[in-house]
Amino acid sequence: MLRTVSGDGGIALRVMVGTAMVAEAAQRHGTSPTASAALGRALMGATLLAASAKHEESVQLQFRGDGPLGTLVATADAGGRARGYVTHPAAHPPPVDGRLDIASAVGRGVLAVVRERAGGGEPYSGLVPLESGTVAQDLAHYLVESEQSHSAVALGVFLGEEGIQAAGGFLVQALPGARDEDVEQAEENVRGFPGPGEMVREGFDADQIADRLMAGLGSRTRHYSTPVFHCGCNRQRVLRAVTALGLEDLREAREHGETLEVRCRFCAERYAVEPSELTPLIEDS
Length: 285
Fold this sequence. Notes:
- By secondary structure, the chain is of the alpha+beta class.
- The protein folds into two domains: 2-229, Hsp33 domain (3-Layer(bab) Sandwich); 235-284, HSP33 redox switch-like (CBS domain Like), CATH 3.90.1280.10.
- Helices cover 35% and strands 28% of the residues.
- It has helices at 19-29, 33-51, 102-106, 136-147, 180-191, 196-201, 206-213, 235-242, 247-255, 275-284; strands spanning 2-5, 11-17, 57-65, 71-76, 81-86, 109-117, 124-129, 151-160, 163-174, 223-224, 228-229, 260-263, 270-273.
- The strands form three sheets. Strands 7-6-3-4-5-11 form a six-stranded mixed β-sheet, covered by helices on one side. The chain has a five-stranded antiparallel β-sheet with strand order 8-9-2-1-10, with helices on both faces.
- Strand 8 (151-160) and strand 9 (163-174) form a beta hairpin.
- The N and C termini lie far apart (45 Å).
C-alpha cells in the first residue's frame, strides 16, 4: 500500500498491490473465479477506503445485491488488515465475451458503508444504490453521493489456471481546495490508465503505478504499508459465541458428548468445541 498527495496537496492517492491478500481470501473460502474476483475487489476497496480516512478507523463494505453471489462483505482497518466473505462462494455465472461477469453476479441492490473510529464513538454509515455491480464504480458513486468526494476508483483481479495471478487497485481523490488544473490533470491521468490489476500482472509495483497517476502533479512523501488478509477471530470469541445457543442446547450437547464445530464466516477458520469446554460456559450462564 502506498499513500501520498500531490505536490501542492490537492490530490490524494492510494495505490495497493493486493495479490497475496486476495489469493489468501480465495483459498480460505474456496471461491469460484467470479466470486474470487468480486471478493478481491471488495477487499481492496475496503482497504483503500480505510487508508484514505482522516482518522484511524475501520471500514466495512456490504454489497447487498440480488445476483447469484448474494451479499458481498469486506472490512479493513487503517493498518491494511482486511477480511471478508461472500454468501455464495461457488456462484459462477457464464462469462461474457470471455470476461468474468461480475456485474451480473453481484446484481442490483445497495451498497452499505460503515466507518468506525478506532477510539470508539458513533459509527458513520452511508447507503447508496449499486451503480453497476462492478465494485469499483459502485465505490466511486458512493464517495460522490455520500461523502461528496470527487474520486476515481479502479480495482482489478486476474486469475489463471492456478488461481489468483495479480490484484491491484487505486483511489484518487480531489481534496477540498484542489486547483481546477490539478483535478483536470488527475482526470487525464486516470483516463489514460490501463488498469491497476493489469499493471500488477505486467510487473509494475505501487511506486511505478503512482508515478503514472501523479504525472504532472508532483508527489510529496510516500508512506508504505503491507496489506494482508487478517481476521481477529480466536477461541475465546468462539466460546462466547457458542453461549448464544442457549443453556438447554449446551447441556444437551454436553450430555451427548457432542463436539460442536464453529466456522468463522469472515475467514472460514474452523473451531472444534469439545464437550468438556461446555461445562464452564454452562456454569457461567
